[in-house]
Design goal:
heterodimer; A: alpha/beta; Rossmann fold; CBS-domain; 2 domains; six-stranded mixed beta sheet; 16 strands; globular; B: mainly alpha; MetI-like fold; 12 helices; about 85% helix
Chain lengths: ~425, ~280
């Protein structure tokens, strides 16, 4: 995560005023007035104010906020479905707000594909024709675009449905068509506007997972909008939290959860923070493979390779935890012709009891990326906790919790 | 004591304007007149050239193809009745006028309707004009038609086009404006030009509504073509007109029933055309 990354889109000082006198509104903003006062004084709505952020090449960036926070405006400013009032949005050296009509069309065709909350499929076109839309607009030849669209439909698991019409499909399948339309276009950036919000929770979970898989496979730069923190935590590489048209915090899911920037974020996160109740046991998974103290380094290496592990826990026959073996140490032991791996083990890992609260585990992850070992009172290995699982558990708990909290949350938002 | 307020000479102004138009543009009107008359004669001759049973078969076949057996049977019975009553030729003349007037009206209405849907300013300019065209009593259009095009079928077409065009324009505009904003947004997001948006999204999605407008236009055209008998248009209208002048209610009703049959046939036919498109 820490390696230097290329910036795909650079957004600086982006503001949007809805109304006929944006100058006045921006002046008041510069004097330190906030959205409600500006609306009172000028009748102008400050949709976005001084937004600065970067979208890195290949990342999945989630912009999250409650309704009215400006997230839909923000994503539409990127491809100028909404004209920004001021600021720059630079993609591959082009400043989007400065483009003339023709260049803008070209820019949209090359750089942006969009997936919409209510799918926005064309009802008079078949699934195949919908998937071809972007290519057709760009003038790609018939046979070629049919081929590309078919591949995209296959990627989202819709092969066999090419000739169906959107109204013959379920909501989840319709959104797959929306996704296929975006993928077929092969633009450099994928914009997803509350793409999964209209789907029921089970399907939404599936789609989130599929998006992550697609994303990690294709490394497509993605900007994803949601009002759902659970969803954001689940899929994001980084999260931008928006409130009243301003950025409150930018960070990884862990940073947002563990170091909320202010009370607003904290209140948001509190809905999620079930970590005090959840323990290591909840997030723990079975160990895929362990090594024995007496095993030879080559056997162990093969085992690690088989299970695709960078490190492996070493136990006795009764599963008493003896140590951890890293792949480097195992290779060295093999080179040196050691008989067993006993000497190559390290004790530099974290172990916790099954009752350890989940939030304590965050800090441990930031030091080392090994899975955390969960052991019982007799030091026997019960399982391991990997990083993603903690967030997963928290997110799942949050979902159950936020439904109960939704009323208070909207009430709080109403006061702002 | 009553104060004499001089009445505004609105009528005189309009007459002056019409006279001026008639004399200044007589070349144009004569040209239009000739072209239209040729069209009417051509179509009329073609339809008359077919023997009644031939045309009847074609119409029945058409009904069966675009609609269903029931309409086909109804059409056969209706056409046979008209033939039997000796109203076949007037019916053909009326049909010709309706077809030509509708064609002209649609050819003008579609681009105007599309333009009005895309431009808010044009929309606000056109809508009051349409209200005027539709609410002005239909007979009034007959009067200026005569100095422009003389007595006869061309004048009838002129008045009919003006009277029947508004729904086609209105429905076209409505249909395009009804296309959901999110679909327009989707087209924009993928970089569609205005033309691509129109051809690939707006027009196909507004087609059912446009067809409903054309259906209305046909119905209005039929009613106007009948009235146009007053200025010498041939067809079923002139049969009715003659029956009125001779006080022969039987003849009048016979011609009237023929109009009803023709109207129902055209209506069902265009409606099922629309439904077919929808599904």
């Amino acid at each position: 995560m820490n390696e230097k990354r290329n910036v795909k889109i650079r957004v600086r000082n982006l503001s949007k005023v809805f109304g006929n006198n944006p100058k006045k509104a921006l002046e008041l903003r510069d004097q330190g007035l906030k959205r409600p006062e500006i609306l009172d004084k000028t009748g102008q709505t400050l949709g976005l104010s001084n937004i600065d952020f970067d979208v890195y090449e290949g990342e999945l960036l989630v912009i999250m906020g409650l309704s009215g926070s400006g997230k839909s405006t923000l994503i539409r400013c990127l491809n100028r479905l909404i004209e920004p009032t001021e600021g720059e949005i630079v993609i591959d050296g082009e400043d989007i707000p400065q483009l003339d009509d023709k260049a803008l069309l070209e820019c949209r065709r090359r750089h942006f594909s969009m997936v919409f909350q209510n799918f926005a499929l064309f009802p008079h076109r078949t699934v195949q024709q919908n998937a071809e839309f972007g290519l057709e607009i760009r003038g790609v030849e018939r046979a070629e675009r049919a081929e590309i669209a078919r591949k995209a439909l296959k990627q989202v698991g819709l092969d066999g449905w090419e000739d169906a019409y959107p109204n013959q499909l379920s909501g989840g399948m319709q959104q797959r068509v929306g996704l296929a339309r975006a993928l077929a276009n092969d633009s450099t950036v994928l914009l997803m506007d509350e793409a999964f919000s209209a789907l029921d929770p089970l399907i939404r979970g599936d789609m989130q997972q599929e998006l992550q898989e697609l994303q990690s496979r294709m490394q497509k730069t993605t900007v994803f909008i949601t009002h759902d923190l659970d969803e954001a935590l689940n899929i994001a590489d980084r999260i931008i939290l928006l409130k009243d048209g301003e950025i409150v915090q930018i960070g990884t899911p862990e940073q947002i959860l563990t170091h909320p920037a202010d009370d607003y974020v904290k209140r948001f996160v509190e809905g999620v923070d079930m970590s005090k109740i959840l323990t290591a046991e909840h997030a723990m998974r079975k160990v895929r493979a362990v090594a024995r103290e007496g095993d030879g380094p080559r056997t162990t290496l093969r085992k690690m390779h088989e299970h695709n592990l960078d490190s492996i826990y070493v136990t006795r026959r009764d599963r008493t935890l003896m140590g951890l073996l890293e792949v480097d140490a195992a290779e060295q032991a093999a080179r040196e012709g050691a008989d067993t791996i006993g000497a190559a083990m390290t004790q530099d890992f974290r172990k916790v009891g099954p009752q350890e609260p989940l939030h304590n585990l965050f800090a441990m992850f930031s030091e080392k990326s090994f899975p955390i070992a969960v052991v019982d009172d007799d030091e026997r290995l019960l399982g391991v906790v990997v990083k993603g699982a903690v967030l997963d558990q928290l997110a799942r708990a949050a979902e159950e919790n936020t439904t109960a909290d939704a009323d208070t949350e909207t009430a709080a938002a109403g006061e702002q | 004591m009553a104060i004499e307020i001089p009445s505004i000479p609105l009528g005189q102004w309009i007459e002056g304007g019409l006279d001026w138009l008639t004399s200044e543009y007589s070349m144009v009107t004569r040209g239009i007149s000739q072209v239209t008359q040729t069209g009417i004669d051509g179509l009329n001759d073609a339809l008359m050239w077919l023997p009644p049973w031939g045309l009847l078969l074609i119409i029945v076949g058409l009904c069966w193809w675009v609609a269903n057996m029931r309409l086909a049977i109804g059409a056969a019975a209706g056409m046979a009745l008209i033939w039997n009553l000796g109203l076949w030729d007037p019916m053909i003349e009326t049909l010709t006028l309706v077809v030509i007037a509708t064609l002209v009206a649609v050819v003008i209405a579609l681009p105007v309707g599309i333009a009005a849907a895309l431009s808010e300013r044009l929309y606000r300019m056109i809508m009051p004009v349409l209200d005027f065209m539709q609410t002005m009593p239909a007979f009034v259009y007959l009067i200026p038609a005569i100095p422009f095009f003389g007595i006869g079928s061309v004048s009838a077409i002129f008045a009919t086009v003006i009277f029947s065009m508004p729904p086609a324009i209105r429905f076209t505009t409505l249909g395009i404006r009804q296309v959901p904003g999110e679909l327009i947004e989707a087209a924009d997001a993928y970089g569609a030009t205005r033309g691509q948006k129109l051809v690939k999204v707006q027009l196909p999605l507004s087609l059912p509504t446009v067809m409903a407008g054309i259906n209305q236009t046909i119905m209005l055209a039929l009613s106007m073509v009948v009235i146009a008998a007053m200025i010498g248009a041939d067809g079923l209208g002139s049969e009715v007109w003659r029956a009125i002048q001779r006080l022969r209610p039987g003849d009048g009703f016979e011609a009237g029933i023929a109009v009803v049959i023709l109207a129902m046939l055209l209506d069902r036919l265009t409606q099922s055309l629309r439904k077919q498109r929808k599904s």
